[in-house]
């Protein structure tokens, strides 16, 4: 059994990279995807939750995961949350703090890291991925120091965006009806493998969306043929994933 554990959710690798960097630095740390809820039968010194901000708050899948997390033998663990976001200040953590508090645990530390903004359904991808990755790595270093030293820091208060988060987050599930597949699709199933919520099933070598989408855009962003688009919006918007994260890492879940 390891001493520390980090759970992550990631569509384009920013959060996975942050989670990986923290795990490597604090050592003796398991890194586990939130794809599967997990019963914590052992006691950990540190429990980490790393995820992107969607509409000023947690992705629905993250909320579900945290709600299902059994903290009964970890009530005194140092629990930290680190969210990645495009704006840096969008990290509302009031909700996650409340969920953990409701399980007799305590969110001891919360921080947000500014990363490349990846919502290709809304805007074109920037051309500064490498610079953003450098800035992300620098910001992560500071967070790592805090977590190594078990620094207690009140989690970030919700941003004003969080007011609409509750209203909009559930509407994302069926937005996958807007995805279309071009003739470039060769049925490689990368989309289905990288989807963090198993929302894509291959049928006759073509992706079929199952309407419990998080809009993480992993399918659009990682498709090697750029064959998946959202309505007619993403065709000319470029594609992004964190430069240090490979498809293999996104797929290789524990
Ligand atoms: C559906 C969606 C909603 C997003 N909402 C916000 C937001 O409210 N504020 C923000 O700063 N960034 C927002 N972003 C950008 C991501 O939080 C950011 O790029 C994050 O680092 C992506 O992490 P990942 O690579 O681990 O998926 C959003 C991205 C997506 C896909």
TrEMBL record:
**Protein origin, superkingdom:** Bacteria
Supply the SUPFAM superfamilies for this chain.
4Fe-4S ferredoxins, Flavoproteins
Identify the residues that the record assigns to the 4Fe-4S ferredoxin-type domain, covering every copy. Answer: 175-205, 206-233
> Which InterPro entries does the entry mention?
4Fe4S_Fe-S-bd, 4Fe4S_Fe_S_CS, EFR1-like, Flavodoxin_dom, Flavoprotein-like_sf
Q: Give yes or no: UniProt keyword Metal-binding.
A: yes
What UniProt keywords are attached to this protein's entry?
Answer: Iron, Iron-sulfur, Metal-binding
- Descriptive protein name: EFR1 family ferrodoxin
Q: Which organism is it from?
A: Clostridium boliviensis
